[in-house]
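User: Sequence recovery, please. Input:
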């Protein structure tokens, strides 16, 4: 019975690990989407006011104004992109992976030849008894 229990524990640990990994991937996708929204928001709302202020208020050329706004957008995109990429496995994922590994190690030692042959011998003995009857 022990090998089946260890296999079940390994499967449950893998399930917990996969759930944590999926949760992390979804979080990264949401943060990436937020970064995109902020980038678009910056392009649409801030550019109009910033363009006007830089071009007219500071008396800059069109090229200088475009360079300043493009640099600011790039900085914002890099900051939010780094936030989306900064993700490591959680404590739960790491522990689930350790539990799965230990269960699989125990499964290998628990499945000795004698333990695997015993159910087979019982099955063969049952067939022998049925033929005689």
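Assistant: Recovered sequence (133 residues):
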């Amino acid at each position: 019975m022990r090998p089946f229990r260890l296999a079940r524990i390994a499967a449950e640990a893998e399930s917990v690990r996969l759930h944590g990994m999926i949760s992390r991937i979804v979080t990264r996708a949401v943060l990436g989407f937020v970064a995109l929204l902020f980038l678009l928001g910056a392009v649409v709302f801030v550019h109009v006011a910033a363009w006007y202020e830089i071009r007219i208020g500071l008396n800059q050329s069109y090229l200088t104004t475009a360079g300043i706004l493009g640099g600011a957008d790039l900085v914002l995109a890099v900051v939010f992109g780094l936030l989306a990429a900064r993700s490591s496995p959680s404590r739960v994922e790491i522990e689930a992976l350790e539990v799965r590994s230990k269960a699989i190690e125990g499964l290998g030692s628990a499945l000795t030849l004698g333990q695997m042959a015993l159910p087979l011998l019982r099955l063969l003995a049952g067939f022998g008894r049925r033929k005689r009857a």
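The mean pLDDT is 82.
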